[in-house]
């Protein structure tokens, strides 16, 4: 029995190592093959100054409001602008999008959203949390692994106070930062793969290690948040 358990554990570890190698290979591939396009985009943005940055933020607002995953823009922000500026830009875009979606849901889309909830029990559970209107629950929703645009639309369709909704927006920062970090790391590894001699191994190790720590913290936080919501009876399943 112990041998069987050991064997299963060994297989589990092997699969995790394999998955890690696949992810790492995917990151390097992204950096190398998307690198040229991102460099061209970076050049265009730099050439247009503040206008280029405003266009990038505008794209975030428009497309995430249409349910295009903000992850795509966060990764691009990390690759194009680096950690600090990339995080700042994606946060500005995500905040404007959240405010826009909240207002659209409250002023125009509320009847349709409430009708949709009758056919979607999981969305209905999220809406019940948002409907309580407390800052703590709003913050938990922002930290949970739930689409930010979904939370914004459902909050707007509920009776959530705007002040609570606005106060919980910083809860998006950890997830966005982790996604921006991924883009930054992918671009860096792509450059390293193209010319190892020009890049510091220490910088690469620190960059990858930092991302792994960030990812582990996000997984841990997400589990705590989901457990807290489930324990309160707010999210079913």
Series of secondary-structure elements, N-terminal to C-terminal: HHHHHHHHHH
Largest beta-sheet details: none
Strand percentage, roughly? under 5%
Question: How many individual helices?
Answer: 10
Q: Tally of extended strands?
A: 0
Give the total of domains.
1
Mean pLDDT over all positions = 79
As residue ranges, the low-confidence spans are: 1-14
Q: Helical content, roughly?
A: over 70%
Distance between the termini: 33 Å
Q: What sort of overall outline do the alpha carbons produce when their principal axes are compared? A: globular
Determine Rg (CA atoms, Å): 20 Å
- Helix/sheet category: mainly alpha
In words, what does this structure look like?
By secondary structure, the protein is an all-alpha fold. It has ten helices and no strands. The longest helix is centred in the middle third of the chain and has 48 residues.
Give a short overview.
This protein is an all-alpha fold and 237 residues long. It has helices spanning 2-33, 35-48, 50-65, 70-117, 121-131, 135-143, 148-157, 162-168, 173-194, 201-231.
Which short descriptors sum up this protein?
globular, disordered N terminus, 10 helices, 237 residues, mainly alpha, 84% helix
């Amino acid at each position: 029995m112990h041998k069987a358990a050991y064997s299963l554990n060994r297989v589990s570890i092997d699969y995790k190592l394999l998955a890690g190698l696949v992810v790492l290979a995917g990151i390097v591939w992204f950096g190398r093959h998307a690198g040229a396009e991102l460099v061209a985009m970076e050049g265009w943005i730099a050439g247009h100054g503040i206008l280029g940055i405003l266009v990038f933020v505008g794209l975030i607002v428009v497309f995430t409001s249409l349910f295009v995953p903000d992850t795509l823009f966060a990764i691009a922000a990390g690759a194009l602008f680096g950690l600090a500026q990339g995080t700042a830009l994606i946060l500005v875009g995500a905040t404007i999008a959240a405010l826009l979606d909240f207002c659209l849901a409250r002023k125009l889309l509320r009847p349709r959203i409430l009708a949709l909830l009758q056919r979607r029990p999981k969305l209905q559970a999220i809406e019940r949390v948002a409907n309580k209107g407390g800052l703590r629950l709003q913050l938990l929703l922002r930290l949970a692994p739930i689409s930010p645009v979904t939370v914004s639309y459902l909050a707007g369709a509920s009776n959530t106070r705007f002040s609570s909704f606005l106060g919980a927006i910083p809860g998006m920062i950890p997830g966005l930062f982790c996604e921006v970090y991924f883009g930054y790391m992918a671009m860096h590894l792509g450059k390293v793969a193209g010319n190892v001699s020009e890049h510091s191994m220490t910088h690469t190790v620190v960059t990858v290690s930092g991302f792994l720590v960030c990812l582990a913290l996000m997984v841990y936080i997400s589990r705590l948040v989901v457990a807290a919501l489930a324990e309160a009876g707010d999210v079913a399943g």
